[in-house]
Design goal:
Blueprint lengths: L4 H13 L45 H4 L3 E4 L2 E12 L5 E7 L8 E4 L4 E5 L4 E4 L3 H5 L12 H11 L17 E3 L4
Length: 183
């Protein structure tokens, strides 16, 4: 049986960087409990093989494809997906960076992917169950500020959404996330 495209890419990634394969293990990162503890690839100058992007799972989308999709609020268009913020410990996509500069005096705001109620692949739209005014009025994100629990709490409070973390989590001073473009 052929593996899904995501598993194929994971296998290629693991082989290239020398990471252990996590599947078949009870832990998320195989024998390592945290991706930050995995060995770094040093001196691996092997060329990366080109892959055929046309073969694979039609339900799997690259962030490169979704970048640029229009963001639709409940009452119309508000901007576009400029980037993604990925948690560097769990590798979860935590936020979409939405650029509202399609509108006069726009800015960049963060929207959690869980707040999207629909994605139209054919129309290249991300539909969010919030008004344009709510999204545009959200806390501005310049990319320079740390995304810590304090920042996230303010963001979730502003949008009136339940938080994804447990109540026992402490506020950290280091940013847990990075932009996909930084890699």
């Amino acid at each position: 049986m052929e593996e899904p495209v995501s598993r194929q890419r994971e296998r290629e990634y693991s082989l290239y960087y020398g990471y252990p394969q996590y599947w078949g293990s009870l832990r998320l990162w195989g024998l390592g409990g945290d991706p930050g503890l995995l060995p770094t690839a040093s001196g691996n100058d092997a060329p990366v093989e080109e892959t055929d992007e046309t073969s694979g799972d039609v339900h799997l989308r690259s962030v490169d494809e979704v970048r640029g999709y229009h963001v639709q609020g409940s009452d119309g268009a508000i901007g576009h997906v400029e980037d993604f913020i990925v948690d560097d410990e769990t590798w979860d996509v935590r936020y979409l960076v939405v650029d509202t500069s399609n509108w006069w005096f726009g800015k960049k705001v963060l929207v959690a992917p869980q707040w999207a109620n629909r994605i139209s692949w054919s129309e290249k739209n991300v539909h969010v169950d919030m008004s344009r005014e709510a999204i545009k009025g959200g806390p501005e994100w310049s990319g320079a500020e740390a995304i810590d629990r304090e920042y996230e709490s303010g963001l979730y409070d502003y949008y009136g959404r339940p938080v994804y973390w447990g109540s026992g989590d402490r506020v950290t001073s280091r940013p847990p996330s990075h932009s996909v473009r930084e890699r």
